[in-house]
Amino acid sequence: MNKLAQLDQKYVWHPFTQMRDWLRREPIVIASGKGAVLRDVKGREFLDANSSIWTNLHGHQHPKINTAITRQLKIISHSSALGFANEPASLLAERLVKIAANGSQMPDSNGHRPPKFISKTKTANPSLEKVFFSDDGSTALEVALKLAYEFTRRTRGAKTKPRLLSLDGAYHGDTIGAVSLGHIDLFHKAYGGMLFSTDKVMSPYCYRCPFNRAKPERNDARKYRKCLWECVGLVEKKFAAQKKKGNPYAAFVFEPLMQGAAGMIPQPSGWLGQVTEIARHHGALLIADEVMTGFGRTGITCHVDDKTIAQITKNPAAAKLFATQRVGVTPDFLCVAKGLTGGYLPMAATLTTRRVFDAFLGEYEEFKTFFHGHSFTGNQLGAAASLASLEILQTKQSVLQRARLQKWMHEELQTLWTLPQVGDIRQVGLVAGIELVKDWRTREPFALRERAGIRVCEAMARRGVLTRPVGNVIVLMPPYCTTKTQLQKIAAALREAVKAVF
User: How many CA atoms lie within 13 A of 37 on its CB side?
Assistant: First the structure.
């Protein structure tokens, strides 16, 4: 066994990993990376099929980000944001606010619009004007949660006990507040005694929806479902019931377009716009968790073809960077992390409105300050990397490459329908979840003890492709620099792995 692998097994405790399993085999020790390729200490090459856990947007060793970090290292890497400002963080805050304000969207309808459960008068979107920096996705959500909680108390009365609503299967991070927002027993049940109570409402999981009367087909379940939008009706009922109790929900927390750790659950067209309007109608703040979905990850539009690419070529600015922009929704809190620095450094941001900001203004002795912060908040090195990443994202070259990659992904994913263990293929932009089942005709799931997803990913690794499953769902989320040939290799490795395992 390699010496570094020995040291790892002797000293390191890995996240979300059963260490007994880990200690049974020699781990892959990553030594270097370039573009979409990772290399281990034994010289083997692997394609990074999940962007190093959903973070690395542009590929490893991108020259522009490398240059930006190197330049900043020669000036200063970090100074405190408690009482001091700095140049890169100020510029980054301005850039994020301007990008968030660019809210018009590409045509995105594929039919199946839900019925209107409330007034046809659409609530006006707020304007995101302030940025609070933190360290990662969990802390970005923690910031939004605390701000929403205290803002509600200051606007509804100090005796108010704000309640929050999130989706079934939600995962919003690992800090105590973020865990309280989550509803995945596998992750959260162990900490139940430490958490505060939040409510949940049905997630629009079309493939396993109890209201979907459609029989299984070889297609994305969103496209052949038969229902009456009961999931939207349940959201309306939940808000109405809480309002009758005299304490309307303070905030509605959601991942837009695709729930990540829940199992890559995509939202059917029309769902997000409708449920956020319901939340607005009932006076709830909107907290959008775009930690995974942000910075172009949900793609250009719901479907990309040659016509779409031609449109983008003429007007690359039409490609929005946030999932909420895809449906014309501006939340009260926009939480970003992961890809903010292009996957180089841990950094996060929570964007919010002037209305929220103003509620925390007062004299020093009034103690209306937002008492929350992090040692590395707004650090210069992370901000410099983020500015470079955003500059890359807004180039015509990057926009066109993302559009092409989305199209290639769709084409390659269609080849997986021949596998009887593939029950559903869910793609939103440059994110895909392939749900493995015992038989696609019955949708019967594999038991967790069968480790179906893990075994398939292990078989993919033996074929030179690295990714990590969410239960029985294989996740594909390649860096934006991935070529068509590399994507074909990823799909081929998955096909071969499924055949080998089953």
Answer: 9
Contact criterion met (CB below 8 Å) for 481 and 58: yes
Amino acid at 301: T
| Domain count of the fold of the chain | 2
Neighbours of 314 (CB within 10 A): 7
Length of the chain: 502
Mean pLDDT along residues 7-33 = 96
List of residues 6+ apart from 140 with CB closer than 8 A: 134, 173, 291, 335, 336, 337, 348, 349, 350
Same domain, yes or no: 111 and 226: yes
How much helix, strand and coil, in percent to the nearest 5, is found in the chain?
40, 15, 45
271 token code pair: 């769902």
Instruction: Report the distance separating Cα 98 and Cα 90, nearest Å.
Output: 13
For 322-367, list the strands marked E by DSSP: 333-336, 348-353
Contact yes or no for 9/22 (Cβ under 8 A): yes
pTM beyond cutoff 0.85: yes
- Closest by CA position to 301, among listed 158, 125, 104: 104
Structure tokens at 355: 């209305």
Between vectors from CA 369 to CA 368 and to CA 371, what angle results, nearest 5°?
125
Q: Which amino acid is at 200?
A: K
Lowest mean pLDDT among 143-152, 317-326, 346-355: 317-326
Whether 69 is covered by a domain: the verdict is no
Establish if 82 belongs to a structural domain: no
Q: What is the pLDDT of residues 56-108, one digit of tens each?
A: 999 999 999 999 999 999 999 999 999 999 999 999 999 999 999 975 444 44
What is the domain-level CATH number for residue 429?
A: 3.90.1150.10
Residue range of the domain that includes 478: 3-62+399-501
